[in-house]
Amino acid sequence: MNRAMMSHTVTVTRTTTTTSTTALILNTGYMKTLPGFLKVLQVLCGAIALGIVVHYRDRYRYVPGFPELFFMCVATTFLIGSVALLLSCLISLSTASIIAKTIYEVVYHTFGFLFYLVASIVLMVEVNGSNTWYGRSNYYTPYLTASILGLILTALYLLSTIFAYKSYRGG
Hints:
Elements: H1 34-60, H2 66-91, H3 95-99, H4 104-128, H5 140-168
Helix pairs in contact: 1-2, 1-5, 2-4, 4-5
């Protein structure tokens, strides 16, 4: 049985289709990672601590003292920064992996750690001082609570600094 070799031509056509969408895709998996969870906690605790100090400043006293003002500035600054980082990582699928490999998160979280540490200690020392009017007013408990939340935020930013440094170094 002798079969003749048959040749034939095959044509391959490639079609490229480009579509655009206006749908917003959220990277919800980022919140399940430890850095994402820490950012969520930073935003929540920061908003609560800032809310406490702002509420009592507005309700009972017109001009805040230095400890409250410094704490409010630190809390506002890092709340805005943390919300921006969290939203960036949630809205963009690639941001969470790219920004973690840069030095930015290491520097940002280090500053958050240092500033919250100082602001929380300054507020706590002022509130617990022996000759201050905090103990005789409605400020003691809420400001002590805010300073304790500030110390919790200090720990959260320290953890974020450690994880950001490991990610930056490729670990």
